[in-house]
Write a structure and sequence with these properties.
The protein is built from 15 helices and 17 strands. The protein is an alpha/beta fold and 534 residues long. It has two domains: 319 residues, Response regulator (Rossmann fold), CATH 3.40.50.2300; 194 residues, 3-Layer(aba) Sandwich (Rossmann fold), CATH 3.40.50.2300. Helix 2 packs across helix 10 and helix 2 packs parallel to helix 12. The chain starts with 13 loop residues before the first helix and ends with a helix.
């Protein structure tokens, strides 16, 4: 059985409670229609100290039908669903060290049908026994937006549970051990060490990885991550693999989509950044270039953290600047600013938005005031236009969308409401579960960190069939890009995604737009900008 482990702290920080008390609903709750549901604990176990430990969670349990096989879809098919994987030359396997203590000997070979398998002889790395493979999940399960961490954990659980129900991988079943990071980089770093050194996990799944990059690199452990902050894309952390957005790249794409695709006559903007929960305070100068390349004057660049509490003075500032568009949603605390805008009955004439918007429950914290917010995502719609936009498959439809929905409903029902299914956290982390499984299936002898890193780093256009393709080449990490844009619309009871079609769908940015941010870097500009500041 697959088990996941996490521990929850007893309460939220007082300053955060005070800050978010003005919101329509609490930041740690899921907003579904007009009701509020507290995200539930998963297999809770106290570790007896203050550092997060994990809870172990059964990965074969499907609601009330333990061990039942899911219908539809094929877990871990020989090639990535739809376009399959693209294996380039193995890049940067150096530095990915295989830990041999406590590892098992190989008892089963990789699928004979996989031509891109990797053979590493000797014992397997830690976390691999003859019967199981341990996966560590670092997720913000409590605190400012704990429901997002629930989606993260539930999505990984859904994919790997389905693999287990179908017999496992290489004769083994997955076991998840999770730890609550509370949206705090320092807590994430402590939890990562515990999962690696005490729980002896084989694989890590993390949220941002800025705080754990040096550590996982020194160990050589493969680390799947959402990304968001630039350090996850650095070549200095070759075993960290982002499937998700890069904040600066998302701002660059927002500027491109607004000015060049929608043709909005935006002449002035302001940019918000943060230094606390999702810290990217070293890189706002690149975000400025994203807008100025299109002739837009950036009037102000402002820090706003959740702990700042009240956004009223910042709203007054940008209002007095009379900006056309506010690049606002690049801070975890942006719903506080949206609430302040609503109290002042003001919004920029051409709108506001940003990358931290692709989740109904999070955006819904500002209630109806979020009507019209521009959002970005790399996944697909489900409530309407099911499985699209997905130009990465000849059908135009994400080939894994039904498999995703079915496994989430079967194995993670608390995260199977439409808001959770359509959000970027669920779709990206489910895809990470798929990448974990595919990389292990490619190991033809021992299952080692070295072999898994070698295979993942060779993927320059990995297509998991649900979100945009990714490159994991250490010198050219792209995350899941490009993104597409939509607006949140109030339907009388809750916020819903607009139809993506009027906004153009995924629009690959021209090379010149990337070179304007990092001259000469082209498609590898996210890695180049990260390396420049680390």
């Amino acid at each position: 059985m697959v088990k996941a482990v996490h521990e929850r702290p007893l309460g939220l920080y007082v300053v955060v409670l005070l800050a978010i008390s003005v919101l329509a609903t609490g930041c740690g709750s899921r907003v579904t229609g007009t009701s509020t549901q507290q995200a539930g604990a998963v297999g809770q176990r106290s570790s007896g100290d203050n550092a997060p430990s994990g809870d172990q969670q059964d990965l074969g349990a499907a609601g009330t039908d333990p061990g039942a096989a899911a219908t539809g879809g094929v877990a871990g098919s020989g090639s990535a669903a739809g376009g399959g994987t693209t294996a380039g030359a193995a890049a940067g396997a150096s530095g990915a060290k295989a830990a041999t203590s406590g590892g098992s000997k190989s008892t089963a070979s990789a699928d004979a049908s996989l031509p891109d398998s990797v053979k590493i002889s000797g014992p397997s790395s830690q976390g691999v026994s003859d019967s199981e493979i341990k996966v560590g999940v670092l997720a913000p399960l409590s605190g400012v937006a704990g429901f997002l961490g629930e989606n993260e954990l539930d999505a990984v659980k859904a994919y790997l549970s389905d693999v287990n129900a179908r017999g496992g991988v290489r004769g083994r079943k997955y076991r998840i051990i999770s730890a609550d990071t509370r949206f705090e980089p320092a807590t994430e770093a402590t939890a990562a060490r515990r999962l690696v050194e005490e729980e002896q996990v084989f694989f890590l799944v993390s949220t941002f990885s800025d705080s754990i990059g040096p550590y996982v690199t020194s160990k050589g452990i493969p680390n799947m991550t959402f990304g968001i902050v630039p350090p996850a894309f650095s070549s200095k952390y070759p075993t960290t693999y982002p499937i998700g957005l890069n904040t600066v790249d998302s701002i660059n794409q927002m500027a491109y989509l607004q000015t060049q695709v929608l043709k909005q006559p935006i002449k002035t903007t302001a940019i918000v950044y943060e230094t606390s929960n999702i810290p990217w305070g070293q890189w706002p100068d690149y975000a400025v270039k994203a807008w100025t390349q299109w002739g837009v004057d950036v009037k102000s660049v402002d820090r706003f953290n959740v702990s700042d509490g009240d956004c009223t003075s910042l709203v007054l500032k940008v209002r007095n600047l009379n900006i056309d568009y506010w690049q606002l949603a690049n801070s975890l605390g942006w719903p506080l600013c949206q609430q302040a805008m609503a109290r002042q009955n003001w919004a920029p004439k051409f709108g506001r938005g940003g990358p931290y918007t692709a989740d109904e429950h999070f955006v819904g914290q500002a209630g109806q005031a979020s009507d019209g917010v521009y959002a970005l995502t790399n996944g697909v719609q489900i409530a309407q236009n099911k499985g699209t936009p997905f130009p990465y498959d000849p059908s135009g439809v994400a080939p894994e969308v039904d498999h995703f929905v079915e496994t989430m409903k079967k194995y993670s029902p608390k995260s199977s409401d439409m808001g959770s299914l359509e959000n970027i956290w669920s779709q990206d982390f489910w895809s990470q579960g798929k990448l974990i499984n595919e990389s292990i299936r490619r190991q033809s002898d021992a299952i080692t960190w070295k072999g898994v890193n070698q295979w993942i780093q060779s993927q320059t256009a990995w297509n998991g069939g649900l979100v945009a393709p990714s490159s994991f080449k250490p010198t050219c990490k792209t995350g899941s890009s490009p993104v597409w844009m939509f607006q949140w619309k109030w339907d009388g009871q809750k916020l819903v995604q607009s139809d993506w079609k009027p906004y153009g769908g995924p629009q690959p940015m021209p090379t010149k737009a990337k070179d304007a941010v990092v001259p000469g870097a082209g498609d590898c500009y996210m890695t180049a900008m990260a390396d420049a500041k680390l």
